[in-house]
Amino acid sequence: MKRRIFAAVAALCLAGCAGTTQAPAPAGAPAPGPAPSPSTTPAPSTPASPAPPAAEPAPPSIWPAKVLHNRYDGASDDLLTAGLGKTGLGQAIAPAMSDPTKPKSVELRKRAIYFNYRALADMSAAGGYGVLYGPNIDLAGRDSLGEGKIAGDEFLTYLDGATLMVQVPERFDPKDPCIVTATSSGSRGIYGAIGTSGEWGLKRGCAVAYTDKGTGTGFHDLATDTVNLVTGERASAARAGEDSLFTARVTADERARYLRDFPNRVAVKHAHSQVNPEKDWGRHTLAAVEFAFHVLNGLTDRRAGRYVPENTLVIASSVSNGAYAALAAAEQDTRGLIDGLALSEPNVSLADVRSTLDTSTLLNVYLPCASVAAAPFNNVPQPLREARCASLAKKGLLRSATLAQQAAESQRIINEYGFLPDANLVLPSHYFLSVMQGIAVTYANSYGRFSVLDNLCGYSFAASTSSGVDAGNPAEAGSLENSFALSNGIPPTAGINLINNLSPGGAKEDRLSVSPSTGARDLNLDGALCLRSLATGVDAVSGRPLEGELAEQARRVRRGIEETRQSGNLRGKPAVIVNGRSDGVLPPNYASRAYYARNKAVEPGSKLYYYEVTNAHHLDVLNGIAGFDSRYVPLNVYLTRALNLMWDHLKSGQPLPPSQLVRTRTREIKEGRPVPISLSNLPPIERAPAAGARIGVDAEGRLRIPN
User: Fold this and answer.
1) d(Cα 513, Cα 504) in Å, to the nearest integer?
2) Cα four-point dihedral sign 658, 618, 329, 418
3) Residue 320 catalytic?
4) Roughly how many angstroms between the first and final C-alpha of the chain, as a whole number?
5) For 587-629, what is each residue's pLDDT tens digit?
């Protein structure tokens, strides 16, 4: 059953609330949405003890109408591990539910933390979990924190299309206040950065400011007309109202007509919200910081104080899209909220630099053929990969004659487009996991502000059978009900798959469908080429300008991408970025390297430092898989080190190390198995790196990175 969110932010249930608590909303309380004007903001209730005067940095527009507050004792439940501790998070079996078809919000929260933590980390002890990183490891790298549970308070609200959350640990020090941002990576929900910058901030004793940045877990099941609530439960769209995380902008008649042709389809927030949320990721991150100040200034227990940017240290941090959001927030921060940044593998959007949609659609076309060669976790069936090669050759997109030559040519096209050879062995696993397929479909829809009704390039989202036939089946019981915990925000996820509506004979799951133009089961080359055309603005086969509807769709996509462009100017803020050289999701040439070079060009006196890490890639979670375990090291260890460096710089003036290449060591193989990882595999970021390891920009503005 839905938990009501209580009204009046100024009346946050604070020090006197023992245990996990929640105050019910009064009848008729306003739903989350645009904030009320100051004259209509609910009056605060009388606190248990007088709070000190507060001068919040947040303008009235940031005051949410409703906030859910829970207090966690650090034993039965907690902020970091949901009561599971280091041991529970490390178990392969997810926390149980009383009824999978009707999960309780507390169960959804626990499972969301469990799955989000495990989605970003290799959970094997040999790979470093519980040894080099994890809830039990302190910020100096020692195993000193037991199960790693952290007591404190959690405040959750919904504002302007984004979920905001603030966690305030019990050990927050009013004499040394700090805030760390933890914007979700990818399109994940509100707990998407719990195991990265969220964990570091909580261990440091800082308040942690989270946001799902307007993407998150929003699934509108058009057949049942049900949606996700901010606490994760499902409800009818009518009942949810403005409490819905996402309800598609379709009328009842439009929905009924659409379902007659495309039964049991699902609209997804990032793809179908029709607001291009990426343009607001920085703004949402700043809103999370402002909400954190608001929460802190409402505290009435021993943590009470007057918290303003001048006396509170704020570090913007996260990974991937969350790191992108931190960069955007720093660029937009005209009020001095952010003091410094420590980021891992950020996505970026810069003018004259290839976009994520551009690179992902290029991979979506050529990677299946390039993946014919052996690589770890390269599990797409061989006949389908061979069919892609043959179809590419028939369309004149490959010139080679034999399969081996076609695979080599496809790989060469990928590398010549700017993907580093270091990523070649990582990439096939990403196609098997539908990383670039999901990104290409979702981002094209989002940039162009397309509706679920548009079926862009013939794609839709739905459940399907394991054979891929009968696409558009009703979602299995428990999949959507648990989507808040299970989903990464981009299908295929939580039982919802990519569907090719144009497959001859009826819609089928994308990878098992038939391309109309080739008549082959070639992993839907037609759909991939359509998305490629939208990304480039020219026909992906002929290279000629697009015409008609496709041309207009491409213009819409281009306008959306332009809305997201960053400047590269961090307004003098110190910043450090770590990135794996083997990153196959966000190629460093068009992400971290590009941002570093642009910042040096546009910001006199730049304080940005870049640390590139060999043998590290975008998805640490894969490092527990055979073939990855012996080749790659955990990048998250370097995010922790980057955060520590930024903390020491801001607190005690320690100089930040020069930009450099960090040459890691892969795990030694003994008796056919890699030995457990240790610190010897992970050399430090050097304060005085050798000349042969330094990264910099030369007098002509060219980026110099050593091999």
Assistant:
1) 8
2) positive
3) yes
4) 57
5) 999 999 999 999 999 999 999 999 999 999 999 999 999 999 9
pLDDT tens profile 104-151: 999 999 999 999 999 999 999 999 999 999 999 999 999 999 999 999
Q: Which residues pair with 661 in a beta bridge?
A: 612
Q: How far does CA 35 lie from the centroid of its chain? A: 26
Longest alpha-carbon distance in the chain: 80
Give the residue from 453, 4, 41 showing the smallest Cα distance to 239: 4
Residue 583 vs residues 320, 336, 590, 684: alpha-carbon distances, Å: 11, 32, 11, 20
Q: How far apart are alpha carbons 44 and 510 in whole angstroms?
A: 53
Q: What angle do CA 507, 509, 513 make, to 5 degrees?
A: 70
164 closest CA partner among 216, 200, 110: 216
From the candidates 184, 273, 320, 513, give the one annotated as an active-site residue.
320
At 140 the pLDDT is 96
For residue 285, which of 178, 206, 184 has the smallest C-alpha distance?
A: 184
SS3 469: coil
Amino acid type, 526: D
CA distance linking residue 190 with residue 218, whole number of Å: 11
> Residue 356 is encoded by which pair of tokens?
């994520």
Specify which residues 673 forms β-bridges with.
Answer: 670
Q: Report d(CA 690, CA 671) in Å as an integer.
A: 35
Give the C-alpha separation, 400 to 396, whole Å: 10
Q: Which band of pLDDT confidence, cut at 50, 70 and 90, is reported for residue 1?
A: very low
* Tokens representing residue 115 in the block: 């799955």
Q: What is the pLDDT of residue 247?
A: 98
Encoded tokens for 568: 């590269």
The SS3 assignment for 609 reads strand
- Look up residue 497 and give its two tokens: 């798959």
Q: Give 503-538 pLDDT, tens digit per residue.
A: 999 999 999 999 999 999 999 999 999 999 999 999
Beta bridge partners of 265: 462
Closest alpha carbon to 277 in 343, 203, 186: 186
Instruction: State yes or no: pLDDT of 258 exceeds 80.
Output: yes
pLDDT score for 372:
72
Amino acid (one-letter) located at 103: P
